[in-house]
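COMPLEX REQUEST
Ligand: adenosine-5'-triphosphate
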Amino acid sequence: MAKKKAKNKKTTKKSRKFSLKLNRQQKVVLGSFLMLFGLALIVAFISFLFNWQADQSILNEFSNRELEARNWLSKFGASISDFFIYKGFGLASFSIAFLILLSGIYLFFGFNSANLRKFWFWGILVMIWLSIFFGFFSGKYALLGGRIGFETNDFIQDYLGFFGTVLLMLFLFIAYLAIRMKVTPEMVGGYFRSGKKELQDAMKEHQSQVAETDEEKDWKETVAKPVVEDKEEEKAPNIDLSEDKPIEKKVSEPSPQMEINPAPEEDVAMEVEAAPEEEEEDNLSTKLVKDFGEFDPTLELKNYKFPTIELLKDYGGTITIDQEELEENKNRIVETLKNYKIEIAQIKATVGPTVTLYEIVPEAGIRISKIKNLEDDIALSLSALGIRIIAPIPGRGTIGIEVPNKNASIVSMRSVIASAKFQNAEMELPLALGKTISNETFVVDLAKMPHMLMAGATGQGKSVGLNAILTSLLYSKHPAEVKFVLVDPKKVELTLFNKIERHYLAKLPDTEDAIITDNTKVINTLNSLCIEMDDRYELLKNAMCRNIKEYNAKFKARKLNPNDGHKFLPYIVLVVDEFADLIMTAGKEVETPIARLAQLARAIGIHLIIATQRPSVNVITGIIKANFPARVAFRVTSKIDSRTILDNQGADQLIGRGDMLFTQGNELKRLQCAFVDTPEVDKITEFIGSQKAYPDAHQLPAYESEESGTGVDIDVSERDKLFREAAEVIVTAQQGSASLLQRKLKLGYNRAGRIIDQLEAAGIVGPFEGSKARQVLITDLAALDQLLNEPDN
Ligand SMILES: Nc1ncnc2c1ncn2[C@@H]1O[C@H](COP(=O)(O)OP(=O)(O)OP(=O)(O)O)[C@@H](O)[C@H]1O
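STATUS: Structure written out below.
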């Protein structure tokens, strides 16, 4: 291990040594220098073509200031041109000047230097080729091929003769066209048949074929969104309960909504690539989009039908207003407060699905904290559970007292899915969580959260909450756009989603069930997601995008070539039910990848939803909490639990059955979670599952844990390619250690370890003995040969 670290250090040191990292200022300085130097070379070279004979004499007398050179860049110009053109590569030396100029432009404007390396590589090759080619004519015109061109040409001719040299040059030219320009005979044929346009089309066609993922090529059709009834939002009735007035029903003014103005997205400075090649690609993408339309990720399942709203049950959740109850509660509140000498100027009630909010405006001069302290007394006088006092209600200037209704009404999933708010939500991952206290549908964007922590004692609505979240996504996102990774240690809660495995689920390669119930598999999956995250970051970096949204938009606009590994990236939502159970059994092994994902995954579209029954500090550790700004709390059993999950009390005073508090880092919102029952989820998954699906669940990258492969019954066919060589090394040295293999066969630690396990399985080395090397069970190579030649070895 120590060795491995040392080795790693060595390599990082090495790579550090060779990577030339310049800051922006240094790039500008170096870039401007190279640009001007490149220009100077071009000027000097051009001038050299006319004055080289006249300037011959001064080359040997560089220090003589009496002599004047005719070159526009004087002696320097004459000398450097002589060096490059006459003594070097002839006319092809212009290539060097242009490459230096181009490098300057790239550095100065901060373009992606990956292209630059390509330009230099091909530029130098072309220069050499041209120089040798011009070498044919150097006899007459000395400047054409330069000395190198002439001599090299001469050298090749000595061995291949004139004709052979011409053929060699021709071959190199064809190779250049094929590799660099991607020209094929068919394209040339096409060009002669119908002109240049045809050639371009053929090239584009070739590229677009790769982009297209389905055999069905109808690009025009789009997937129909679910048709749902668009119900008018039912507003919570507001009732003014001012002391002297009788209760009258009043149409509530729409309660002030917090307008979340998304921060104006920073203007992305569009980098205009100076390189002609990139321009060509840009034109190509515009042309491709013109010809085929934007890339449509849903095409592979273009006939996919979203689940219909009829699959959800209507619980008839209209709010019934019990006037008597309202009047009674009002009187009790007023009386209780009067007992403590708190006079009220005004009182108003807003009836929600499960709780009614009484908003009071106390007489001037009353301290708010005094009312807040009376929470328990008011609860006692109302003899009701779940009283919460919000003093003051942010942005309203009133004090709120939430009192549960005697008859709570169910907020059906159907009503929130059908609401205009959800249907028209322009969100990446809209979640219809339920309804607020003023009976408005509450929709949030998971992509903005970007991760969610959910806690609640058993039986308070967590599983229903998770189902509501998943249902929201099923109703709004096509299978190509979102994938779920479901972890369900309880083994029963999420099993229904098995039916949509090939539509919506993601899993590790070579695993049977997509829904993960086994804790050891969770660790592999989490690590695999970390690999996926790193891969996605690499793709984003290469595409010069800051987040998945930009990346996918660019991909859809066909600006990213699938040949370079680019692909449409679906969002991945990881749902973990019973997180406490996981942390208790796997601890750090789970916490580390979760924390890593939570910290970094937001930009690349991996979002985590973690639910737990036990929101204690050893389950929701500091590092996890810090990275989950969005929290959902159902009823918990103690104030401490409430503080752990929300950093605030209140969750202990909820009434259960989907009554919940939601926060995204600022104020707490009391919501009634939408209710979706198991039969409904069953119907939805059945509806989706019975449609045409992808051949398999979405594949996550393979992850092999360091310990994997320690099982001794390793399959013979799965042996490493170097197995035999390794066995010989071990038997010859009579020392069974992985580090020996690492050194002799130049392997990484993991691979060497795996081979040792395979050797153990084959009976060549003994079992692991702590710090000692393993015992070698085969004495010499002959015995090894015999063993390995046995039929089952
Ligand atoms: N939003 C809701 N509206 C109405 N009733 C609800 C709601 N959520 C939950 N319930 C009721 O509470 C019961 C328990 O809910 P749920 O199974 O989600 O609890 P849980 O927190 O997941 O419990 P556990 O942790 O034991 O699995 C449900 O069967 C349902 O009757």
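REMARKS: The two ends are 31 Å apart (CA to CA). The chain has 26 helices and 17 strands.
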